[in-house]
Amino acid sequence: MESYALLIAATLNAGTVLAIAALGLLINEKAGIVNLGAEGMMLCAAIAGFAAVVHSGNDWVGFAAGMGTGALLAAIFGVLVIWLNTNQYATGLALSLFGAGFSAFAGIQYVQEKLPTRPSFAFPGLGDIPLLGPAVFRQHPMVYVAIALTVGLIWFLDRSRSGLVLRSVGESPESAHALGYKVRLIRLGAVVAGGALCGLAGAYLSIIYTPLWVEGMVAGKGWIALALTTFATWRPARVLLGAYLFGGVTMLQFHLQGTGVEVASQFLNMLPYVATVAVLALISRNPAWIRINMPASLGKPFYPGS
């Protein structure tokens, strides 16, 4: 019973990193921008957040530093692809490479640093419920923030005027421009918001999930978050469920090892990425389904007045 509770708790913890990052990328793509730089942004945010906590002793200062770092890098990316019309895919890949190199350089002095002891969290009363309490009600507040973000984003995209404008920019920027909306500024706002969430995910990874700094510690989670948006067909609720699915696959390897299942560790380490490839392959069998749900102008540059 206890092992299952630990597995569920670890799944929620691991899924939170993917969910926050994927929700940020979803905002980008709803506005028509593909940002392949999530891995680099998360790495830079991870070291920024970790360093901020080392010097301040406050986790929330670290989260703010991570969000600021992600937003700054996303803003640079946004200016390049929205105003200078650089290729979105090439610019995103360059951002990932830059983030990997810069974070490794900036993080050299923090490799041996340790974060201060943090308090445990639990809902009074609920945290003592057998199985459910340890599994669900003793999580870090950021786990519940990820769920709240999902609910908020569903409302924003489906019920608010601003969300409708954002979706219209992703579907037909020419029509939105003709109606008087500032397409470039809206896209930049979406890119910066998405970058801030990727930064928050990176900071959560180094501050709460590990908590330590190691070069390359994001280890492909940015790419999995990017794949999640397609897996979820650009719907926030499915992003959250997909994040927990991949989080569970990631944690399953440790659960199997703990229960004495003799499987090569290399094979278990492959599981999250094999699952990613398998899911994308299954989804790709129905291109029409993807086209129906995908923003029509995703990845396409916009030239005002053309």
TrEMBL record:
<feature type="transmembrane region" description="Helical">
    <location>
        <begin position="33"/>
        <end position="54"/>
    </location>
</feature>
<feature type="transmembrane region" description="Helical">
    <location>
        <begin position="239"/>
        <end position="257"/>
    </location>
</feature>
<protein>
    <submittedName>
        <fullName>ABC transporter permease</fullName>
    </submittedName>
</protein>
<dbReference type="GO" id="GO:0022857">
    <property type="term" value="F:transmembrane transporter activity"/>
</dbReference>
<feature type="transmembrane region" description="Helical">
    <location>
        <begin position="141"/>
        <end position="157"/>
    </location>
</feature>
<feature type="transmembrane region" description="Helical">
    <location>
        <begin position="263"/>
        <end position="283"/>
    </location>
</feature>
<dbReference type="Pfam" id="PF02653">
    <property type="entry name" value="BPD_transp_2"/>
</dbReference>
<feature type="transmembrane region" description="Helical">
    <location>
        <begin position="91"/>
        <end position="111"/>
    </location>
</feature>
<feature type="transmembrane region" description="Helical">
    <location>
        <begin position="60"/>
        <end position="84"/>
    </location>
</feature>
<feature type="transmembrane region" description="Helical">
    <location>
        <begin position="6"/>
        <end position="26"/>
    </location>
</feature>
<dbReference type="InterPro" id="IPR001851">
    <property type="entry name" value="ABC_transp_permease"/>
</dbReference>
<dbReference type="GO" id="GO:0005886">
    <property type="term" value="C:plasma membrane"/>
</dbReference>
<feature type="transmembrane region" description="Helical">
    <location>
        <begin position="185"/>
        <end position="207"/>
    </location>
</feature>
<feature type="transmembrane region" description="Helical">
    <location>
        <begin position="213"/>
        <end position="232"/>
    </location>
</feature>
<keyword id="KW-0472">Membrane</keyword>
<keyword id="KW-1133">Transmembrane helix</keyword>
<keyword id="KW-1003">Cell membrane</keyword>
<keyword id="KW-0812">Transmembrane</keyword>
